[in-house]
Amino acid sequence: MRLAVGLLLASLALQSWAGAQRYEPLSASVQAALQAAVSDRATPEPRFASIEERIDWLAEMSRRLERRMPDRAQRIEFLKAVRYEAQRAGLDPQLVLALIQVESGFRKYAVSSAGARGYMQVMPFWVGLIGSPDQNLFHLRTNLRFGCTILRHYLDIENGDLFRALGRYNGSLGRAEYPNMVRTAWEKRWYWVPPQSTEAAALQ
Q1: Distance (Å) of CA 121 to CA 31, 41, 43
Q2: What is the pLDDT of residues 69-121, one digit of tens each?
Q3: CA atoms within 13 A on the CB side of 99
Q4: Is the pTM of this model over 0.90?
Q5: Cα separation, 32 vs 17, whole angstroms
Q6: Coil, helix or strand for 86?
Q7: Which residues are catalytic?
Q8: Alpha helix (H) residue ranges in 40-136
């Protein structure tokens, strides 16, 4: 009984922070730019400064994600997609991981009470606004592509103000709880700095 109550409370807590982006009319130029941003079909290949950084980042992020995503192959595919889509949108991949943690708890098929879907809790109206009917928000890369594009759009609207951009993303603009939760998860759970290479250390 206690376990069931705990699970119910956890579910309610998760739903209370799930995304609920609000529909706002877009200018033709902004709509066209966002449509282009979600339409690219190139093979996702994230950028790393070196093979050592690639190995270190994937290993460290995989370790941190293991409890929530036990299958290693799934974790690596997920992390590579997150890094690619975050970089493509000009976002820190670790910030995106923090947002996903708060929004969906890394649940691929999460659906909020407002109807937001997937890892990044994207509202379905975005597909009609800037996407195409064949795009499924439960598909890993589609969800990440839309989520990262939307967050980048909100950052641009807010002139780089992350606090306000996160508030827009969650539909809680002006309230501190959600932005603070994402920043805390980013700084305490997902923050990562590449270890100094042996070559660079030798030059110092």
Answers
A1: 20, 21, 23
A2: 999 999 999 999 999 999 999 999 999 999 999 999 999 999 999 999 999 99
A3: 30
A4: no
A5: 30
A6: helix
A7: 103
A8: 51-65, 72-88, 93-104, 125-130
